[in-house]
Amino acid sequence: MKITMIGTGYVGLVSGACFSEFGFDVTCVDVDAAKIARLEKGEIPIYEPGLDDLVARGVSAGRLDFTTNLEDSVQNADVVFIAVGTPSRRGDGEADLRYVHAAARQIANAMRPGTVIAIKSTVVVGTCREVQRIVAEERPGVDFSIASNPEFLREGSAVEDFMRPDRVICGVADERGEETMRRLYRPLNLRETPMVITTLENAELAKYAANAFLAMKVTFINEVANLCEAVGGDVQVIASAIGLDKRIGNKFLHAGPGFGGSCFPKDTRAYAATGRKYGRPQQLIEATIEVNESRKIDMAERILSALGPDPAGKTVAVLGIAFKPNTDDVREAPSLVIVQTLEGAGVTVRAHDPEAMGPAKELLPNVTWCDAPYETAEGADALVMLTEWNAFRALDLKRMRGLMRGDALVDLRNVYPAEDARDAGLRYFPLGKAA
Ligand code: NAD
Ligand code: UGA
């Protein structure tokens, strides 16, 4: 079976490389000629652990290639995935479907009869039917199938998540669509990985409901952390205690600076907009969005207050800019709001991130970028742990303190033991528990 993957970003490239690992022939297409040129040279345009080996293996086996020529590759494909971006539309927060619609038109004009078009991008309910309409209008009378195949991988563990998913969800509209999706995912050993075969609408909605629920869970524990601070509780103890209840589960209960990334923020906004559009407001998610927005400002204010009554002119050293570890993605990272708020208060920011400094430089032009964590601490009045990269977990806090001018450690991921911070002579400000 020949696969064409339209869109070679985080999802398209990982999915394409993983399908080629299963033995399928995959062509990854992108409009971004620079991206395709890098891939053709064997360079991986994003940081994603394990992806380089997978891509190299697929390419050398002749099962994976890259092109900007959508028409040729679609003409030869049995299945065409759409994995283009679905960002937030400015103003109303609805998903901007223009890239999906454009891809649908291009596919329609190039496909051969019998093609299965599978939508992997996260799309609001009704989009697959809309794509079906667009394709049928462009190529009247040509037979094709439509399927919805939302993706649940996380950045930073994308390859592992794709290869060992908790489940695969496929929305189908006919037998050919169902049979094709079953064949594509058969290599996963579907006795171990449940496959939910359902309608197009259910599959579309399940993707948003999953992300909305997870974003709400993170936001819930962040509010618990706030309460713990007021009453002398410890959010990590509460998270373990409630997480032992199998109905709650222990995942996604780490208090932090607010969720970010290329998906939770835009997907919660789109989900809330869908609720409003259909007159079924999703009030929990509306509140989740609002609480998460104000949390980022609250985090910046905590850092400012750790600097003392007159923060202007002081220096803060930030460890971690990416929205989570093991990725170079800075889209809607809490760090962006936090750093900009600090700078707005007259604070100088020095920062280091193992992989995300390249993409962040343009967004945060006033930051002094440092090559290593110890260099970042030089002359700082406060140190802020913002993204919990493993490389930051075992830092020598005494050495950090020795390089700093001040003595505040604001730990927005609860990475450091309080006694280590105290032993190093640092005033320690964790989240949701006593210092
Ligand atoms: P991305 O921005 O990294 O990549 C999208 C790519 O599509 C870009 O390289 C762009 O140039 C290309 N593109 C756009 N229009 C095109 C066209 N007509 N032809 C060829 N290429 C085209 O996006 P992403 O992070 O991979 O996300 C893609 C979709 O998957 C989104 O809907 C997102 O919500 C969803 N998703 C993302 C993740 C994630 O972890 N990033 C996880 C699950 C689902
Ligand atoms: C998320 C989902 O986990 C994936 O299943 C989904 O496929 C993806 O969105 C998507 O639709 O794009 P991702 O954004 O890569 O994946 O990262 P997560 O690990 O979910 O983290 C999201 C945000 O929540 C990060 O800012 C992270 O720091 C924060 N978070 C997560 C916490 O603050 N605490 C937690 O306990 C977990």
TrEMBL record:
EC numbers: 1.1.1.22
Keyword Ligase: no
Pathway: Nucleotide-sugar biosynthesis; UDP-alpha-D-glucuronate biosynthesis; UDP-alpha-D-glucuronate from UDP-alpha-D-glucose: step 1/1
A single GO BP: UDP-glucuronate biosynthetic process
UniProt-annotated binding residues for substrate: 152-155, 207, 252-256, 260, 324
Matching NCBIfam families: NDP-sugDHase
Name the UniProt record assigns to this protein: UDP-glucose 6-dehydrogenase
Organism: Rhodobium orientis
